[in-house]
Write a structure and sequence with these properties.
- The C terminus is likely disordered.
- By secondary structure, the chain is an alpha/beta fold.
- Helix content is 32%, strand content 28%.
- Strand 7, helix 6 and strand 8 form a beta-alpha-beta unit.
- It folds into 2 domains: 222 residues, P-loop containing nucleotide triphosphate hydrolases (Rossmann fold, 3-Layer(aba) Sandwich); 64 residues, 2-Layer Sandwich (Alpha-Beta Plaits).
- The strands form 3 sheets. The protein has a 6-stranded mixed beta sheet with strand order 6-7-8-3-9-10, with helices on both faces. A 4-stranded antiparallel beta sheet has the order 2-1-4-5. Strands 12-13-11-14 form a 4-stranded antiparallel beta sheet, covered by helices on one side.
- It is built from 11 helices and 14 strands.
- The structure holds adenosine-5'-triphosphate.
- Belongs to the ABC transporter superfamily.
- This is ABC transporter ATP-binding protein.
Length: 327
C-alpha cells in the first residue's frame, strides 16, 4: 500500500533561511484510517511542512507527495484530497456557519446543491446543528474550533490536517473533538495529521508520530506497536549489596542501570512480568525499599528525541524539563 505522505530529501527555504533541511519519511497508509502526530518544539518547522504539503512553498530540492501527487507540481490534485484546519481563525465573521461551509465545500469542488447538503450534514455531525444559521462572529471559542473542523471535512477528503485542534477547549469539548477525530479515522477511513503541543491528545488518537527538530526528522515511532509491546520501566531502590543485581537481571532477560546508593532503573522487555524483579532481588538477599513501574510515555519519547532526556535509562539528563504533558 502506498504511503499517504511521502517526503524525499525535502528542503525548503524561507527568505534566506533553510527551514526544512532534507526531510525523508513515509507516513500513513492509503486506504487505512490512520492518525499521524506531527510534533516538535517551537520553530521546528511543523507549520512550514504543513504549508509545503498544501502547496504554498516550492521546495529548494527534493519532493513532497500526497497519495502519489506532487505537492508543488500537482497542487489541484493534492488540495482536492486534503482538508485543512488551521490554528488561527479564518472566518468571515458576518457569515452564517451554513453559508461558510457551503462556500468552503464549493471551493473544494463540490457542486452547489451537494455542498449545501453536506454543509448542513457536517454541522450537525460536529454538534453545531442548532447554531448553523448564526453568524460565525457570535460563536464561542469552542464552537469556532468545531466550525473549523467542519470546514476541513465538509468535502469528505481522504486526508485531513489538523493544526492544534484542541486549543482553548474545555475538557468536555476536548473529549468531543478527540472523539470526532477518532471517528474520522475509524469509521470513515480518513487519514489524519494531528499537529499539537498537547502530547496527551497525540497519544490518545495517533497511531504513529514524527518528531521534527531544527528542520530535520529526529524520531519516528509507531505508537500502535509501542502500545502493543508491554515494555515496562521500573525504578527500584534496594538496601544491601547490589553488586550481583545486574547479572541477576540479565539472567531473566531484563536490563538495568545502577544510579548508586541502591537506586536502579530497569527495563523489562515484552512478556517479562514485574514479579521477576521481586524474585531477583530476593535471590540476591536485597531488601526492596521502593519499586515503581510505568510504561514509556510519548512525553519521554519526545523529550529523548529533542535531546532533553538521557537516551539510556539511568543516565543523567542533560537538562531539567517540566513534565506537565505539554511541550
Ligand atoms: N516567512 C518566513 N521567513 C523566514 N523565516 C520563517 C518564515 N516563516 C517561518 N520562519 C522561521 O522558520 C522556522 C520554523 O517555523 P515554523 O512556523 O515552521 O515552526 P513550527 O514548528 O510550526 O513552530 P511553532 O510550534 O512555534 O508553531 C522558525 O524559526 C521561523 O522563525
Amino acid at each position: 500500500m502506498p504511503p499517504v505522505i511521502e517526503l524525499e530529501n525535502l528542503r525548503v527555504k524561507l527568505g534566506r533561511r533553510e527551514i526544512l533541511k532534507g526531510i525523508s519519511c513515509r507516513l500513513g497508509v492509503a486506504g487505512q484510517g490512520r492518525a499521524i502526530g506531527l510534533l516538535g518544539p517551537n520553530g521546528a518547522g511543523k507549520s512550514t511542512l504543513i504549508q509545503t504539503l498544501l502547496g504554498f512553498h516550492q521546495p529548494l530540492s527534493g519532493t513532497a507527495k500526497i497519495m502519489g501527487f506532487d505537492c508543488h507540481k500537482q497542487v489541484r490534485e493534492v488540495r482536492s484530497r486534503i482538508g485543512y484546519m488551521p490554528e488561527s481563525d479564518s472566518f468571515i465573521s458576518n457569515m452564517t456557519a451554513v453559508r461558510f461551509l457551503r462556500q468552503m465545500g464549493e471551493l473544494s469542488g463540490l457542486p452547489k446543491e451537494i455542498a449545501l447538503e453536506k454543509a448542513h450534514e457536517t454541522l450537525f455531525h460536529v454538534g453545531l446543528g442548532e447554531a448553523r444559521y448564526r453568524d460565525l462572529g457570535t460563536y464561542s471559542l469552542g464552537m469556532k474550533q468545531m466550525a473549523k473542523l467542519a470546514q476541513a471535512i465538509v468535502h469528505g477528503p481522504p486526508l485531513v490536517i489538523l493544526d492544534e485542534p484542541t486549543n482553548g477547549l474545555d475538557p468536555a469539548a476536548r473529549q468531543r473533538m478527540l472523539r470526532l477525530v477518532k471517528e474520522m479515522k475509524e469509521d470513515h477511513g480518513m487519514n489524519v495529521v494531528l499537529c499539537s503541543h498537547l502530547l496527551r491528545d497525540v497519544e490518545e488518537v495517533c497511531d504513529e508520530v514524527v518528531i521534527l527538530k531544527d528542520g530535520v526528522v529526529v524520531h519516528e515511532a509507531d505508537l500502535e506497536a509501542e502500545r502493543k509491546s508491554n515494555r515496562f520501566f521500573v525504578e527500584l531502590e534496594v538496601s544491601g549489596d547490589d553488586s550481583g543485581l545486574l547479572e541477576g537481571l540479565h539472567k531473566v532477560g531484563a536490563d538495568g542501570v545502577s544510579e548508586g546508593q541502591g537506586r536502579w532503573r530497569i527495563v523489562l522487555p515484552p512478556g517479562v512480568e514485574i514479579a521477576v524483579v521481586w524474585k531477583v532481588t530476593a535471590g540476591e538477599g536485597l531488601r526492596v525499599r521502593k519499586l515503581t513501574h510505568r510504561r514509556d510515555t510519548l512525553e519521554e519519547i519526545f523529550l529523548r528525541a529533542v535531546g532533553h532526556l538521557a537516551k539510556t535509562p539511568g543516565a543523567a539528563a542533560p537538562q531539567e524539563v517540566a513534565a506537565n504533558g505539554g511541550l
